[in-house]
Every structure is written in C-alpha cells, then in structure tokens.
Write a structure and sequence with these properties.
5 helices; eight-stranded antiparallel beta sheet; five-stranded mixed beta sheet; Lipocalin; 3 domains; about 280 residues; alpha+beta; 17 strands
C-alpha cells in the first residue's frame, strides 16, 4: 500500500514537471514570435507560383505578433487583427490556414495549407525576417531574394501559353492591360474587382440620352489589343434592358473609342479577361 502511494507521488511530480516544461516551451515560443516581421520571399513547394491565377508571387506582407501570441497581418489589400497563433503553430483567419514551420530569433517561415477542394491555391512558403534584420540587410541581397527563380519563370511561361490556347482561362497578367480614351468625351477609370480581375469603368459623356444609363459586362483583351468574347448584361440598373441595339452600340463604342494595350507576362503578350461598367450620361465631362 505504501508502495502504491509512493508511486502516485512520483507520477504526480512527473506530471507537474511535464506541465511546467510545456508552459516554459509555450512561453519561449511566444517570446520568439513577439516581433515585427517583414516578408522577403514567397515560393511554391513544387516550383512556380502559389496560385493558378498567377497574379501574386511577390513578398509583400507585414506581420506583428504580440507577447500574448496574437498576430496582425497587413497585406496590400487587407488588414487582419487578433489572429491567435495556436500552440501547435497553426494560424487561421477567414478561409485561410497557415502553419509556422520555422521560427528563430530573426527568421519565420509560414506554410499555406489549402482547404479541401481548393483547386486554385497551392501549398507555398512565406519567409519573414525581423524588422531589425530587414533594415540591416543590404539592397542587393533583398533584390536577389525577390528575383524569380527558374521554376517561377517556367511556371509563368506555362500559364502564358495556356492563355494563348484558351482565352477563357482565368489568368491575371503580370502586367495588366491598359485602356486609353481616344476622345475627350470618354473617361476610363481602372479598378480591381473582388476576385482579382481588372475592371474598366467607362463613362460616355455628352451622350444622346435624357437620363444616365449604366451597364456592366466583360470581354477579353487579346494579344493584339483587340477585344473578344464581348458580353453585356452581367448587371443592369433601374430596369435597363439589354436590347440587341444596346449591345451593338456598347460593343461598337468600346471597340472604336478606346485603345487597349494587352497584358504581358515575362514580356510576352497574353489574353486577359476583364470586367467593365459602361455609363452613358448627358452631362459634360
């Protein structure tokens, strides 16, 4: 019986020691994470870009992790706060999931984990260095890290070739297409839609209408600067009808009042799908 009590005491002490060791590890982990991190390199595990869209391969994230293990991530388009870094190194927000696979005093590497059924995003690594290290690193070294690898280049070329064979292939160019007005009564603003595609906001001033009319659609800017697969009627406001004459007018206007420069990837022209809105107004510019 005494032996049994003695064994229980030994087990209890062992469990307390394990618990203390785990707490020490967690505290050390949080202390190492606590820093301002700057992304300097992004790469696909199998070579190439991290997305079949191909529009983002540049290292452009900023991340701060506080002493309690909560991260703030700033991307070019979004700002995410209060992301808890779990003890198992997992970070999750919205539909995104990352795992910390390397952490040192001045280096941190995240691995993106695609959701089941995600055919767009590929597993990829994001390498960060501390802000202090970043400031001490010379410009030539940073430029070298940002340079595309041979695998990146081959992957881009493959995507570019896919665009030439199949214009419907959803691919955002490395350099997006440009639209320029050919007269003083046409104004064009450029934006990026929620899914990352280019959007041209076209306004026809001094139009032969009594009230303002607004339409939307999409088309392909081809390699030669011409447009194809033209479609109007994704959205109509105020009960607008897309009559055959309306469709014909808008298509003729876009083809003849605007000059397009195609998107390029690695210097090669490619076909790029774009959205557009078309506003007709009797007002003067």
């Amino acid at each position: 019986m005494k032996f049994f009590h003695f064994a229980l005491i030994i087990i209890s002490l062992g469990m307390a020691a394990c618990s203390s060791n785990q707490e020490d590890k967690d505290a050390s982990f949080r202390k190492t994470l606590n820093n301002n991190w700057i992304e300097i390199k992004r790469c696909n595990l199998k070579g190439g870009l991290f997305s079949t869209y191909g529009e983002r391969y540049k290292a452009d994230w900023l991340m701060f992790i506080d002493e309690n293990g909560y991260a703030t991530v700033k991307t070019p388009k979004d700002y995410y706060r209060n992301i808890f870094v779990r003890p198992d190194s997992i970070m999750k927000w919205d539909k995104y999931k990352y795992r910390i696979i390397k952490i040192k005093t001045d280096t941190l590497v995240l691995e993106y984990i695609p959701n089941r059924g995600d055919s767009i995003n590929k597993p990829h690594h994001l390498m960060f260095v501390s802000e202090k290290t970043f400031k001490k690193t010379d410009k030539e070294t940073l430029a070298g890290l940002l340079t595309l690898t041979k695998n990146d280049t081959l992957f881009l070329k493959k995507l570019s070739d896919s665009c030439k064979r199949s214009p419907n292939y959803f691919f955002s160019a490395e350099k997006q297409p440009i639209a320029r007005s050919l007269d003083g009564f046409t104004k064009i603003d450029t934006a990026v839609s929620d899914d990352g595609r280019m959007e041209f906001k076209i306004t026809e001033y001094n139009a032969d209408v009594k009230n303002q009319h607004l339409y939307s659609g999409k088309f392909i800017v081809r390699e030669n600067g011409q447009i194809g697969s033209f479609d109007v009627g994704l959205m109509a406001w105020g009960g607008e009808e897309i009559l055959p004459a309306t469709y014909k007018y808008i298509k003729h206007f876009v083809e003849n009042k605007i000059k397009f420069e195609p998107g390029t990837t690695l210097g090669a022209r490619i076909n790029t799908y774009v959205y557009f809105t078309f506003t007709r107004t009797p007002d003067l510019p």
